[in-house]
Amino acid sequence: MTEAYQTVTHTFDPVWDTQSEILILGTFPSVKSRENNFYYGHPQNRFWKLLALIYEEAVPDTVDQKKQLVLKHRLAVWDVIGQCDIIGSSDSSIRNVIPCDVAGLLSRSNIHTVIANGTKAYELYRKHQLPVTGLEAVKLPSTSPANAAWSLERLKDAWSAVLL
After folding, report:
1. To bridge 21 with a disulfide, which of 52, 72, 74, 92 should be the other Cys (CB 3.0-4.6 Å)?
2. Phi and psi at residue 46, in whole multiples of 5°?
3. For residues 142 and 24, what is the distance between their CA atoms, to the nearest angstrom?
4. Would you say residue 3 has pLDDT above 90?
């Protein structure tokens, strides 16, 4: 049985505060993230391990610990898409996009740098957000387990160049 398209709405808020300077954008929450009601919820996604490694912190377990890690380092986390049609967690299946209000967040914050977590997030940002925000995004390699060609160490090198 093949999975069918579902229209899904993003249900959790961006993580940010007035001290946030760098916004990290994913595409849209995976099935696991939607179940956990928080970003990068798939246990094989290396996002939280990567941030912990870069900032020499313990890997956060709880949502509160994850939020604290993000905010402590003046980061923000959100997604490009607020609603779309998607099959499971497949970024390549995304269609009928309704973008998040990234420009609104930028206008209420001190964010000066936008990072796209992976090529698909970058492409979607350029198509749906850049015309509104006017702020170019930095494309970094995806932390997704699907990006197995990139080891955690290689990810650290690439991401550190922007985050540190």
Report:
1. 74
2. -95, 10
3. 11
4. no
Residue 131's contacts (CB-CB under 8 Å, 6 or more residues apart) are: none
* 119-139 per-position pLDDT tens digit: 999 999 999 999 999 999 999
Residues contacting 104, CB < 8 A, separation 6+: none
CA 55 to chain centre: 18
State yes or no: pLDDT of 72 exceeds 60: yes
Give residue-wise pLDDT tens across range 91-114.
999 999 999 999 999 999 999 999
